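Feature request, filed as a ticket because there's no other form

It would be nice if the structure record came with a short human-readable summary line next to the tokens. Right now we just get the raw output. Example of a typical job, pasted below so the devs can see what we mean:
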Amino acid sequence: MSYYDFAVVGAGIAGASLAAELAEGGASVLLLEAEERPGYHATGRSAAFWEECYGGPEIVPLTLASGAPLRDGGFLTQRGALYIARSGDEALVTDFMQRFVPTGATIEHLGRGQLQSRLPGVRPSWTDAIWEPVCADIDVAALHGHFLARGRAGGVHLECRAQVADLKRGEGGWTITTARGESYRANTIVNAAGAWADPVARLAGARPVGITPYRRTVVQVRVDPCVPDDLPLVLDLRGQFYFKPESGRLWLSPHDEEPSEPCDAAPEELAVAQAIERVGEVVDWRVEAVEHKWAGLRSFAPDRRPVYGRDPEVEGFAWFAGQGGFGIQTSPAAARLTRQLLLDEARDAMTRGLAAELYSPARFS
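Raw output as currently delivered:
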């Protein structure tokens, strides 16, 4: 039986990125994926954008640190983003600017005229906007494939259809048994299981930190007039919707966030109807057809911050989970920081400005 320095549970963007980093740091890595292919759940269902303010001020440093490697790698296509506000939401606009300007995010306040020029057909009740020019689309499949390829080059051993069923720690480290009966051994288990993070922690005898999966629905529709290719990502400042163009169609979400058991998430018709209704309140476009709909699970810790690093109570168990909807856009910096925490390495230029204690699992002890 082969013995690995690290067994990373979950081969979505989180597990794939961290496995690649650990291997490049000289570690032997086993990457275990429960599904038939990596990225089946949250990674494969992302709305696919890099947006500096997404996730809140404490996530901005991870996003900004990830921007350069994502741009340099060719994974970003600049689009721009508009947070839009109704008449009467002036206090929300002021609060948003006060929260995010100090983070270094590139944002500016726009009035009604500038909003109209960037969002044709916007209804008169929408009077203010915050413009984020550097927001970009992410090629998620290419980025995920990039991390998997880096892992292969570094010797990462990927096993699919390998749902972890049992974890036992002895003097020689962990014995991992899958639902199919295969066994593996590793010195450290890294929990990158997304929506299944707390169940994996229980298998290891670790205290769950309260990571909860929430369903998010996205709908692809055909609209009249046809969506301009250069339309920005449009988000409601109240958090009730967002939409963006995709290949001549519109991807829209009602920004739903329904708690869920870990599962293969499916869209609910109410959420689809809400998405269509809400976009109709913003613009005078006509939705001609619903062409596709899907849902994914976004998993958050109770304080909405990710969980990176060694468990404070269970030896040989570490976390790389709770990354909500921002796990893809922060993946380069998050994986590098967690590699450094797990391998006791010094910080580098990408991670020097990150406050690791914000994301430590020790905060839940």
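Something like this underneath would help us a lot:
Residues 312 and 362 are 6 Å apart (CA to CA).
The longest helix spans residues 140-153.
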